[in-house]
Amino acid sequence: MSELKHESVKKKLDSIGCGFCLAKWTQVTIHLDKGLTHSCHHPSPHKIPLQELKRNPSALHNTSHKKKKRKEMMEGGKPEECNYCWNVEDNSDSFSDRVFKSAEPWSEDQFETIVNSHWRKDYNPRYVEVSFSNTCNFKCAYCGPQYSSKWVEEIEKYGAYPTSNNFNEIETMKAKGVMPYKHSEDNPYVEAFWQWWPDLFKDLHTFRITGGEPLLSKDTFKVLEYIQENWEQNPNLSLAINTNLGVPDALVDKLLTIAKDLTENNKVRELIIFTSVEATDRQAEYIRSGLDYNKFWSNIEKILSLLPKVTVNIMAAFNALSVFSYDQLIDRVYELKKKYHNDQRYWKESLLLDTSYLRWPSFLSVKILEDEHKDLILESAKKAMYYGMKDTPMNTHGFSDVQIQKIKRTYDYAIGKSFNYDLEKHRNDFIKFVDEHDRRRGTNFIEVFPELKDFYVKYKK
Amino acid sequence: MLSIRNNEPWALWPTRVCPSFFKLAGNQILGGQYNFKLEFEFTLIKPYGDKSTIFSILPIYTSLNYYNEHMSNIDVHTDNGMDWSEIKNTIFINTRHKVILTNQTGSLFEVFIDNKKVFETKNFSQVPDPQLVFGAGNFPWHHENHHYCDLDLHELKLYHEDVLIAHHDFKQYIYEKAFDLTGNCNFIHKI
User: Fold this and answer.
1) Residues of A numbered 264-283 whose beta carbons fall under 8 angstroms of chain B's beta carbons: which are they?
2) ipTM of this model?
3) Where are chain A's structural domains?
4) Do A385 and B20 touch (CB under 8 A)?
5) pLDDT tens readout for residues B46-68
6) Under 8 Å CB-to-CB from A7, ≥6 apart: which residues?
7) Using CA atoms, how far apart are residues A404 and A417, in angstroms rounded to an integer?
8) DSSP label at A242?
9) Which of A1, A154, A316, B168 lies most in the core, judged by the most C-beta atoms within 10 Å?
């Protein structure tokens, strides 16, 4: 999208108020397993009052809290919870996410409808992201109990990790009343979702299912089957599903059967499958505990071969343990990009490697590494450049500029100065984390990451 | 060695992403506003038609062309328009030759073939985002001035202000891109 377009959207928004943002209406992420909601992802999620849900299931999005923020925006105010954007706008000439999100195709055309509505009015969002459950068979190093039942089990058995901030302690969550519902428990938020769903579905632009591991939730398949049967009410839906691709084969096959019907019979506008990995082989399995690396790739190949229109997007949380094998991951991704390239894919490419640098927990960030390790990130980015699409009209299947830039950005983040980053503390925490990880999970850090042996010995002291 | 064949030219033209890695991508310096030295060795294997282009710098069209074993020419775009020089009995088929282009901004642009000066001017044209093409006088998607040939490239070095910023021995390739030994990703790729 062009700068001009964003400038024009900003003018429209500012004509209502300098803090006006369509995403407060059009976008929502709902953590049904914890009863939390937020629009967009920048404000902290807030609790959905059960009282409100009883009379209005759309309170999963239209909470009284959110309506007050909408009122504030419509009256020229800037809600405190949205200060991520105010920081950007007050300290730079850049557009904030307030503008980007309001300019999205699922937002911009709603401008007139929203400004002509009363702030109290319920609004069906266009971009909805839902987590039905935190049930997950993985416990990735950078994840936690809020998103993984396996993590809950471990923390309940052993307690928090002995890092300076008690990594993944759950007492605070319990005190705040935001512990995820267990899969076996009745969940009033999921019940409300199903009451709201038939009305919500017809207005959706994008629906994305996250988790936990969505394929371990019966609600995921219930939604997919609903779409199979009722697609005529919304044939233009953009559907996205996250999965770790490490669940039993029967569940992957069930997803593929449904996806084949949805895509071959044009029951959705597009279907994108999101997954994650950020290293190779044993190192990947150490980071994403529960991962079977070979099975992961065989499932990706299964998807790409059976579903010629579907794009698989690998979201890689590039962390301190990624640096030694990321270049091999790039090779693997390129190999499959080439093998499964066709001209039918919804997102043009068969497979994307979408790299983001991990910020939390800080002790797993690339910032803890020595300079010689950080240089490997730049080497990976250069390799992706060689695999990059060419600046010619040829139909190519390499890495896009954005995919390359995001790896380079990880290097920039690694070497960048951060005045608030306590390097010594985070390196100590890293050692404490891997020691405890090995003790609890029976792993051997030095054996899996021999490249970090000197680092480990140095900072262990 | 890089074997360039009929209808399949290659180019030194790194991607749009390059500026985020290196402030000055290799192709950028091939204009009159920079001090540079480009040297490469080639063997012309087979000409096609009346004229075969060994290399060209686009879009200003500065090129080395082979007509026959007695006649070649160099075209150079200057601030005063197109300039050229006939080069007699210098380039031969199946013979390894060395070309050197040097530019001192605002003062001297010279071309040497096998250590013999064949051209000089004071005002080599300044150009933003030039592209260096081997084995053609134009990009394939344009419909004129192709003048393809079969050509082997043996080695290439590019200096900016005496610093080597691209070096190719054409032994390693990634995704039809010749590997730049300097690590600067100034790759030469098949168009």
Assistant:
1) none
2) 0.83
3) 3-116, 139-460
4) no
5) 999 899 999 999 999 999 999 99
6) none
7) 22
8) E
9) A316
